[in-house]
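User: I'll paste a sequence; please echo it back and then give the predicted structure.

Assistant: Echoing your sequence first, then the prediction.
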Amino acid sequence: MNDTTTPRAPLSRIPSDILCAQDYEALAAHFLLATHHAYITGGSGFEATLRANREAFERVQILPRLLRDVTTGHTRLKLFGQSLHHPILLAPLAFQALAHPRGELDSARAAEATDTCLVASTLSSWPLEDIAREGCGGSGSSSTSSPCATARLISSSAPRLRATAHSS
């Protein structure tokens, strides 16, 4: 792990030996402060849920289906009434600014660039409204099924949600 007070400078390219998410996790230890890396990679309490999740993922296997006609196949799905081009969502991770100064703002930009839904944490480093605005890139998209429309809808609800939470 990186025990210094100053992490290494960012890389200009993805190293050739990065092949999966676990490779990124191992590499991150060299670029984050030790306390930040421990927070991001750890779980709460005795890490029982973290352990159970890892064990569950280890049991999942993808079985290739060779020689199948996939000319009409797609990855689209509908989730909570929103049409998505693929079943990949960026999961919530609190305090992303521990890993990068712009944290969730740049995650929102990446989500927008890949047409991916970003699920922002309630413990984000930035206000939800800023994350939604950054992800939409000021596009002014009016499509009701776009990630930007969803972000604007959630963003417009946030003040009411906060007011409700504080009044109860």
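The longest strand covers residues 77-79. The chain has six helices and four strands.
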